[in-house]
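TA notes, week 10

Several of you asked for a full example with nothing omitted. So below is the full record: structure tokens for the whole chain, then the designed sequence directly under it. When grading your own attempts, check the secondary structure regions first.
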């Protein structure tokens, strides 16, 4: 039996920043990005913060029969991180309201805090979600 998903759950996650996560490499097909600093891209950092929250609630959901999708991100990216450094992410579930789960989350690299903010995820039944998505895709393809 799984413990209940509730406010107060704390978690940590670690992730070493790969070369592919830097601004010039992530956006390699955008010429002006090739001249930008070789640091962790904010877009990639957002994904890592989301994955940390997902990983943090895995023991509390019936994976893969119950999954979650990100519905809100509000992060401040406050310091650059070069590839090779490890992100140390700490988070806490601060609210569970039905299927909506809200998190407070922060990340540090090997030197300093690099990100802080809030994130929300929505618990889903993947079968129902995929059925709805298939109907939407079919409707889109029929109208073009």
């Amino acid at each position: 039996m799984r413990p209940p998903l509730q406010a107060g759950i704390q978690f940590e996650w670690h992730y070493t920043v790969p070369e592919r996560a830097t601004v010039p490499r992530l956006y390699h097909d955008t010429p002006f990005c090739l001249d930008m600093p070789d640091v962790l891209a904010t877009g990639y950092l957002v994904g890592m913060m989301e994955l940390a929250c997902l990983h943090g609630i895995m023991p509390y959901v019936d994976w893969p029969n119950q999954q979650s999708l990100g519905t809100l991100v509000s992060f401040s990216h406050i310091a650059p991180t070069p590839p090779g450094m490890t992100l140390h992410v700490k988070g806490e579930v601060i609210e569970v309201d039905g299927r909506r789960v809200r998190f407070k989350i922060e990340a540090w690299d090997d030197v300093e805090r690099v990100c802080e903010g809030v994130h929300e995820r929505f618990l889903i039944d993947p079968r129902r979600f995929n059925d709805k998505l298939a109907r939407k895709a079919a409707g889109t393809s029929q109208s073009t």
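The CA atoms of residues 5 and 115 lie 25 Å apart. Use that as a sanity check on your answer.
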